[in-house]
Amino acid sequence: MIKGIGNDIIEISRIEKVILNKRFLEKYFTPNENKLFETKNYRGETIAGNFAVKEAVSKVLGTGFVNFTPIDVEVLRDDKGKPYVVLYNGAKDLARQLDISTIHVSISHSRDNVTAIAVGE
């Protein structure tokens, strides 16, 4: 059963500017995400996509970033490049309270924008 949906859109250029500051990457992304960005040589649209997923997941949970932070939502890729989410700390606790066991995500981008959708079931 669907328990929540969320979406987000972000300008790629906005993320490309802030990722020049390593502190941004450390504050908003887990070590696993940062390792993925480095080893796969991901560009701005992929990092923006991860950020948009974090925002979409916060909407699935119905709170925005209340009682958890963006780093509590980890966005990784499977062997075929499909994004998936791992929750930690407050985000994991909130999902458990809402009886959400799985969050499906999808990311798309154009030249200028990235959009992400998340569905909790």
UniProtKB/TrEMBL annotation:
Gene Ontology CC, one term: cytoplasm
GO molecular function: holo-[acyl-carrier-protein] synthase activity; magnesium ion binding
A Gene Ontology BP annotation from the UniProt entry: fatty acid biosynthetic process
Main EC class the enzyme belongs to: transferase
Cofactor(s) of this protein: Mg(2+)
Chain's role: Transfers the 4'-phosphopantetheine moiety from coenzyme A to a Ser of acyl-carrier-protein.
Similarity field: Belongs to the P-Pant transferase superfamily. AcpS family.
Name under which the protein is recorded: Holo-[acyl-carrier-protein] synthase
Organism: Vallitalea guaymasensis
Lineage, broadest ranks: Bacteria, Bacillati, Bacillota, Clostridia, Lachnospirales
Gene of this entry: acpS
